Amino acid sequence: EAQEMRGAGRTAQGAGRSQGWGPGSLQVALAALVPGHLPSPGADWQEACDRPRAPQRPGRPANADGPPRARAGGREGGRLRRLYCNVGIGFHLQVLPDGRIGGVHADTSDSLLELSPVERGVVSIFGVASRFFVAMSSKGKLYGSPFFTEQCKFKEILLPNNYNAYESHRYPGMFIALSKNGKTKKGNRVSPTMKVTHFLPRL
After folding, report:
1. Which helix (H) or strand (E) holds 81?
2. Tens-digit pLDDT profile for residues 77-124
3. How far apart are CA 29 and CA 23, in angstroms?
4. Fewer C-beta within 10 Å: the chain N or C terminus?
5. How many domains is the chain partitioned into structurally?
6. pTM (2 decimals)?
7. Reported confidence tier of residue 167, pLDDT bands at 50, 70, 90
8. Do 155 and 107 fall within a single domain?
9. What is the spatial distance between Cα 76 and Cα 63, in angstroms, rounded to a whole number?
10. Backbone phi, then psi, for 151, in 5-degree steps?
């Protein structure tokens, strides 16, 4: 390497004599051959490097498009539906932004749900607008969970009338139900023979 440097220096000196360079010009030429003595980058290049990058939206990759999906055990294939219960004036199951669950007669953004397969015959129910999962406690009370847990799993049962019943996978014998006033009923006080547990998935 030292020999290459000396050879490069002699070449630069010869070129300097042939072109009439002075000692100062030779020093500049030799400095360009020595690592660590490269010319400083131009102002345009430095400005591009110093320019702040646009902040990335937290929680989502930069190339993510469209509405976020429910993540039930990492499974895909969710269905966007409203669960209609034909009691009283008729109610759709809804998940409110504060995590409360109830019924609403009209089609609202809070009643738009994503039903995603968790395992064979078992689904999760996710409020698209509120971003809460429907969950059932050990006492049969429905609530909205910000995280997917065992209490968010429901067995989807097709009934003879073509409605579905949703039984807690964690607590068998407990079902999602709405009263004739559109309020939730405790899952341990109802059965799939009762109309309050019958839901029709529809858009």
Report:
1. strand 79-85
2. 799 999 999 999 999 999 999 999 999 999 999 999 999 999 999 999
3. 10
4. N
5. 2
6. 0.65
7. very high
8. yes
9. 18
10. -75, -5
Element (H, E) at 2: helix 2-19
Task: Report how far apart, in Å, the C-alpha atoms of 12 and of each of 4, 33, 34, 143, 201 are.
Answer: 12, 10, 13, 81, 83
Q: Which two tokens stand for residue 184?
A: 């939730």
Is residue 38 located within the same domain as residue 120?
Answer: no
CA distance 121 to 164: 12
Give the pair of three-digit tokens for residue 103: 């019924």
Q: pLDDT for 15-71, tens place per residue?
A: 444 455 555 554 544 444 444 444 455 555 455 445 544 444 333 333 333 334 444
- Whether 169 is in a domain gets the answer yes
Look-up: residue for tokens 């630069």? 12
**Which of 135, 197, 146 lies closest to 168 in space, CA to CA?**
135
| pLDDT surpasses 50 at 160 | yes
What single letter denotes the amino acid at residue 175?
A: F
